[in-house]
Amino acid sequence: MGRIFRIFGLCAAVTLWAAAGGMAQELSALARVNAARSGVIDAGQGIELRLDLSQPVPFRVRTLDAPPRLVVDFREIAWDGIAPDALLRGSRASGLRMGPVRPGWSRLVLDLTGPFAVQSAEMRRDDATGRADLVMRLAPVSAADFAAAAATPEAVLWGLPQAVALAPPRQRQDGSRPLRVVLDPGHGGIDPGAERGGVREADLMLTFARELKEVLLRAGAEVALTREEDSFVPLESRISIARAARADVFLSLHADVLAEGHATGATIYTLSDTASDKASQKLAERHDRADLLAGVDLSHQDDVIADVLMDLARRDTAPRSDALADALVAGLRQAVEHMHKRPRQSAGFSVLKSPDIPSVLIELGFLSSKRDRENLTDPEWRRKAAQGIRDALLNWAQSDAAQATLLRK
Ligand SMILES: [Zn+2]
User: Ligand 1: distance of its center to the CA of 201 in Å?
Assistant: First the structure.
């Protein structure tokens, strides 16, 4: 055995970088996981996580509470072809997911059945083969100890733009400059979103966002995406990205699964404290939950967002978002005809909480519906939908600008 990087001692949150200076060159390529020699098992009173890697990688580990999770971030691990269920062999961990969280970083999240703290984390490198063996042991602790030591949101959202630190948005759009649109392809990375019939919502919405971007650019708009690839972006960061891009308008793009009823057809959602129906409420909750399960701590988020000033700003923005949603219903109906039987809905979607950027969430269709799935995977249908959204945006921008001019007089 060669170099060993290890920590010992009972602790619930540990930041550990296994990257020593001399290892820099060895860390350039993606590490691969040998699934046959990796897994999560019950060990003694605790849990053991073992990963057999093609090379050592820097990593950091911490725990999050409510629900209890172990979150390990790695520099450059390729998870493709690894089935989480095949790695989960014990009974003390109830779920496992892994995938990219942002460029150059991969994440593993282990759902714990109770309060377990990291007891040791060790990465051993075999000099003969160059392979690395990561062994992490967790031991049971009291719920109070676990909660006290769980990581803070700052640590979780490290490196991502913070909502409070960014510049205010530009002056309300009045038609005197190109409309700046931020498109938000839902989900991504460790959070694939809905999956039905071999279609992943995260992939489909990235494809559609790219297509829509082209259509909007040709119409003279400026367009930015909250993610350009299959990476994980927390909901709060999507808002921050829109602010940093000084967006005039924010469109979150989704194609979820609805377990309730047989929903079909495009649906436009705006933000509200009280959901328009049970299904909308569950949809919004599921999106927050996806963030939570991906390792984001939502517990302090409202401190940042639910500020009095922001509520005031939102009061001005809400009618503009409503008008945008109405325009989108009209535009999409014209373009693709088939809409949800109640195409205007609302719920507490976290991603729509920008105080001063009109924001709507578009369910372009539901992957749970066969008909929608066929539409969504048809490039010709998507082309029409993109044109409908373009027309809606242009119509809305025109009357919104007229209103802005009126307000100034
Ligand atoms: Zn979604």
Answer: 7
Query: 278-293 vs 235-244: helix axis angle to the nearest 10?
Result: 90
Q: Cα(286) to centroid of ligand 1, in Å?
A: 8
**For residue 93, how far is its CA from the centre of ligand 1 (angstroms)?**
26
Taking only the tens place, the pLDDT of each residue in 309-347 is: 566 667 788 999 999 999 999 999 999 988 999 999 999
Q: Collect all residues with Cβ–Cβ distance below 8 Å to 222 and sequence separation of at least 6.
A: 178, 179, 180, 181
Distance 136 CA to ligand 1 centre (A): 33
State in Å: Cα 102 to ligand 1 middle.
18
Centre of ligand 1 to C-alpha 318, Å, is 22
Going by pLDDT thresholds of 50, 70 and 90, the confidence category of residue 17 is very low
How much distance in Å is there from the Cα of 283 to the middle of ligand 1?
8
Show the CA angle centred on residue 249, arms to residues 290 and 217, nearest 5°.
105
Which residues is 42 bridged to in the sheet? 47
Set out the domains of the chain in order of their start, with CATH numbers. 4-151 (2.60.40.3500), 163-408 (3.40.630.40)
181 Cβ contact list (under 8 Å, min separation 6): 216, 221, 222, 223, 224, 247, 248, 249, 250, 251, 393
